Every structure is written in structure tokens, then in C-alpha cells.
Amino acid sequence: MKHTDIREVFENKELIGQNITVCGWVRTSRNSKSVAFIELNDGTTLKNLQIVIDKDGASEVNIPRVGTSLRIADGKVVASDKNGVEICVEPQKIEVLGECPTDYPLQKKGHTLEFLRTMPHLRGRTNTFNAVFRVRSVLAESIHTYFQNHNYVYVNTPLITGSDCEGAGEMFQVTTLGYNNDFKSEEDYCANDFFGRKAGLSVSGQLEGEMAAMAFGKIYTFGPSFRAENSNTPKHLAEFWHVEPEIAFAELPDVIAIAEDMLKFVIRRLLDTCPNEMQFFDARFEKGLIARLEELISHDFGIVTYTEAIKLLQESGEDFVYPVEWGCDLQTEHERYIAEKVFKKAVFVTDYPKEIKSFYMKQNPDGKTVAAVDLLVPGVGEIIGGSEREADYDKLIAEMKKRNMNLDLYTDYTDLRKFGSVPHGGFGLGFERLIMYVTGMQNIRDVTLFPRTVGSIR
User: Fold this and answer.
1) Which residues have a Cβ under 8 Å from the Cβ of 146 and sit 6 or more positions away?
2) Which residues pair with 345 in a beta bridge?
3) pTM, whole model, 2 decimals?
4) Residue 12 near residue 26 (C-beta atoms within 8 A)
5) Per-residue DSSP letter, 118
6) CA nearest 356: which of 167, 201, 163, 162?
7) For 92-136, how does the pLDDT look when each residue is reduced to its tens digit (9 = 90+)?
8) Which of 97, 99, 77, 96 is nearest to 87 (CA)?
9) Is 252 helix (H, G, I), strand (E, B) or coil?
10) How far, in Å, CA of 411 to CA of 398, rounded?
């Protein structure tokens, strides 16, 4: 159905004086004796387009209810001091595409985000979620643009895998076999399953990404990951989107520089591309949001070792909920203190104890730490995690054995260290957490279209 996007109506001044067709859903309407008004929105912009209906003596003009979808045919675009532009149309040129009953749940304003989560199929019609998902779209495009501009190859790693990247066992099992008691053991069950062995949904594309980087030099993945972690918190999803670059011929300082450059690029691009949406979030969800993001990207990020960070926390005089000692995993309160109180800007923390990090991270010469890095940002804490990967075959195998991992499941991965191994590294960025950070949204369920969480799927 040929029509003009409402966003274009506002942006293209050459349309003033022309007759055009627009479509959309009724946001509000009001009626008077000689004229009626409809606020129309088609999802292409936060702004509603005012439709002015001159009754011209026709008292029986039916004004459609909120939520009704309309086609406004051959309406004239006119300038408006109040609205910028509006469309004047004759009553007979309004076509109802879809009626909306009186029980439409979005008729009133001021619904809570919790209430809107109960209707994921409709909440996108609100200003909040129109803005959230436009920001999500622009961020995704910016991430692709950054890596494509820097000669990375975009690869699609498997969603179904036979190995656990994190080694933590928090995977969803993939099976075609229903429940029954015919199998003697788990091994017997898996042997009769579709793949002939245990399979699960991937928690990360990193391992396969490393394999691709050993051929193409620089790659990135951008797709869904799945974690069967029983965490019903505002920051956890069972299905989330993951950005994971892997870079050959790179050491930890290279990984850090790329992560900083990429994050600054996508935030700058977002601020320039979505001013209306960002002003909406600044006004409605976090006062000073735009200034915070501008401040973040205007400075070089700090760098501190884990050992130095622990010392800073211990000497802070703060009464932390979680005790601080060398070897502990930093909690959000610790991360925010380092970023907000000590550095007052984004900061990379490096060289964590190897016992609290993954098996694939490069072991440092001290024998106690690994070449890992987390990026901490004010207001949130960790937003990126990465490392230089262990390129030494013997060291990698020894660490995997120490963790009682099944080496047979990782043969392809460990073989990379046999055939022309090189220093390499990468990082992971949780896409939904980035969206939360740049919008001020406090719950991860509000930045993904259909959130999958513990006990909830629809």
C-alpha cells in the first residue's frame, strides 16, 4: 500500500503544500462541532502527526477510537506553528484498516513498565518502546559499521554446540527425545539422540570465533546466546544478543584499545543519529543521560590491574556488602566504586586471578593471574569482558585438565594451538546491557522484544 512515512512528513519540508497518503494508528482523537483532530503514529518517529478533519457542516463524522489503524488518503500537508506540520483531510478520505474495540489496553497514559511487560505484542506502540527499539536498531547498525569499516569478517557461529564455552555447565539441552525410562544412562540417552551425543544451545560463539580468526585474521559475531542460569534479576536473560570480536596477532593492549574505540564509536553515532529518542530518555528516565554519555566518550578510559583495584577498595574506608580480598570476584558495588569514585570515568581492570576466570585466558608469567580485562563504566559496572587467549597448547591442556574438562569435546579448539598458533584475543559485549546503559532503562526485560527469563516465555 503506497504511502509516505510520518517521519518523512516531519523532515521533508518540500512536502508542504502537497497532497499525500499516510497510514498509522490513532494515538488520541478529539471532536468539536466544526472540526475534529486525530493524532496518528506509524512507528517511524516518536512524533504524532495531527490529522485535521474539516467537517464542513457534516455533523455525523465518526471519529475512530484509540488504537484503530487508518489510511489517510490524499490529505494536504500544511505548516503548523504548534506542530511543525499537519495534514488536512476530508472525512470521506479516511479509511479504517482495522477497528479497535473498547477494551484496547493502551487507551490511557501512564502505564508502568511492569504492566507493559504483560503485553509484549502491544507495548511497542508506546513512546518508550518506540524509542528503545529504534535505539536498539541504530546501535546494531553502528556495531556492524564499525567492524566492517575496520576489515573484520562477520561470521555466524553455531547456536547448537557440543561444548560449553564457559565451562560452567549452564546450558540449555537440545534434544529430540521425549521423556521416557527406556535408557539405562545419560550416555545411552545421548547416543540415541539426534546428534548421537549431548548437545546444547551455545552460551557464546567465542570458541568457533577463534577458529575463524585463525583463518580470516579479524572476525566478529553478533547473534543470540543462551544461558540456563537461574537468575531472575533485572540484568539477566536466558536468551540475549552477544557481540564478540576475535583478533589474530593481538595481545591484551590491542584488545583494550579496540574495545574502547568501538564503544566510543557506537555511542557517538547513537547521539548523532537519535537526538529525539535520547532527549526522551534524558527527560523521562535518567536526567543528565546525554551529558553522561558525552562525558564518557570525551576521555581516554583508565586502566588498573585487579591487584591495584583490590588495594584501592581495601583502603577506601567504604563499608561494602561483599568483603574485599585478593582472589574475590568483583561485585557490582566494587566495580561502580572503582569507576565512579576512584577514576570518575570508564576504566579497564586487567590481570585477574586465574581461578575466577575462564580456562581459555592467557596465563601471565606470575603463575597467579591471567591476561583478562573487564571494562567498568560509571552507573553500571562491568559492560565488556575479554582477554588475550591462551596460545600455548601445553598450558591450555594443563588448565583444562585441572578443571576436569572433557578434552574430547574441544579437539578442534585445542588443535588451533598446534597448527600455526599466534597471539590472539577478543571480548564480549552483552548487547542488551549496552542498550540499558545508553537509555537509562533499569530492567533488561524492557530492551528486548520478547524477553525469555526464568519461568517466563511467550
Assistant:
1) 262, 265, 266
2) none
3) 0.94
4) no
5) T
6) 167
7) 999 999 999 999 999 888 899 999 999 999 999 999 999 999 999
8) 77
9) helix
10) 14
